[in-house]
Amino acid sequence: MKSPLARVLDFAVARSKEAHAFFKVWTPQEEGPEIQALFTQFAAAERGRVEMLSRMIPDELVGKTVNVSGLSDCLVELKEPPRLTRLEAVRLAIQRKHRIAGLYDRIAKLEGEACSFFHAMAEEDRRTMCALEEYAKRLAADNE
Fold first, then answer.
1. Which of 12, 35, 89, 106 could anchor a disulfide with 31, C-beta 3.0 to 4.6 Å?
2. Class of CATH domain 4-143
3. What percentage of residues in the chain have a pLDDT greater than 70?
């Protein structure tokens, strides 16, 4: 049976794979090159995360802190319902980014060797969320 930290890493890898697939599938073809470039950049970042997270070992997550309780509360998967509109898909991506940023913040508090890596990923996810929120506002305005 896998340790709780190994399950956390597996979860993080799965969420990055999911995000990568999302950005590849939803790259807006009819939108301008600005949105295409943004989504392409997000997809590449997620692909890089998969590679980095896949190489991590659970011991890199824990430093002086040995209490890892509460991590399982962060392992909540948001399923994608069938037939989403682009706006619904972007809103789901925002929710997913919010959740994974919370997990990365929690992992960073464990003060392991990878602490700064997880801080940086949480901040990157917050920047991605801001960009997605702006895009969602434009989509919503276009739908009015």
1. 35
2. mainly alpha
3. 85
